Each structure stands twice: as structure tokens, then as C-alpha cells.
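Sample intake sheet
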Amino acid sequence: MTSTLTPNATTPPVAVRAAPGTVPTAPAAAPAPTAPPATTPAAVPRAAAPALPLPPLGGATRRPRTPRPRTAPGGPAGTRPRGAAGSRPRTPGRGAPRALPPHTVFAERLLAVLSGERPVHWMLGHTLGEAYEQLVRLAPETPLRSLGPRPVLRRCAVQAHPAQGAVEAFATIATGARVRAMAFRLERGADLRWRCAAVELDGLGATAAHRA
């Protein structure tokens, strides 16, 4: 006997009869199909925001100052301005005092020694030959001392001798109401420094001889 099987035929469930004295159990349910895990899109990184400059502490934010071209009155841009009222800027050294000539400097030094303001040894290193000995003899008498105001150098003329490297000076000095005359000679050494080589006062020789 030949049986014919029908494809895709479902076999009806067979009921199982429980044994006496036992509790019938429900047939096990088929496991529920599991859904495939959901895929989440990858997080897109955000671009970092540019850092903003922080305002200074304790004050408001100041805007940078734009340099302005310095212009002269009536001149093209970029030129240096002049001083007040369009005057030229003062150049360094224009108002500096001028150096005194050597004969004027020595006239003031000899006046200070012969009036008693400075000691004789103040002229050490500034004299040569017999000049220092002459000052040693003249200084104790303080011939240029004034009982009133301080003696003042009024005029100092000079006669140069370039070939000898020397100058002869003649000075007038006011000592109160009296005017005295002083002559001295300066010589320039190998070190290019001027030194006093001789000094003489008016009438001092006759006064000294009369006292002797």
C-alpha cells in the first residue's frame, strides 16, 4: 500500500493525556523571535568655538588706540612737529654753558688764592718753575682780600705766543672801591695741559721793600 505525502502539510497537535494523580501542565510556548539590535548613528564631533579675549579685571574693555601720523604745521604727513608756536625744536647742547678759556680759569684760581679763599697748595699741579714759590710769598699777605664785597674779576686780556706754547695774560680785579692789576704767564706742557709759570701784582714789590 502506497501513501502519498502532501507537501507543507501541518501535523495537528497531539494531546498528551496526563497520568493519574499528576497536574497537567501547559505546553511550553515557543520562544519569541528576537529583533536585531538597533544601530545608533555615530556622534559627530563639534568644532571647538574660538576663544574670546577676556576683558581686563576691574575695568571696562579698552579699544586699541590707532597711532596718528605726526604732522608739522603746514607740512606733509609723517614729518616731526615743531615746538611751540612753530619754533624749531631745541637741539641738545645749544643752551649748555661754554667752557672758559685757560687764561680766565687761571685768573679765577689766582684770585681765590691771593684773596685767602683757597690755600696755596690748591695750586699744586697747576704751576711750574718759580710760580709756586711766588704764590707762597704773596698768599700770606692776602693782597686781593676785600673788606667789603667779594673781589671780582673784571677783565682778562691775553697775548699769545704760539711758537713758545705760552700766553701772557693781564687781569683787572675789583676789590671794593679799588681796582688791582695782576699779570701772569701760562705755558702748555707735553701733556697739553696749561700751567702757571709766573705771577705778579701791581705795586707789591715796592710795598714789600718799604716794609723791609
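Comment: The chain is about 15% helix and 20% strand. The radius of gyration is 60 Å.
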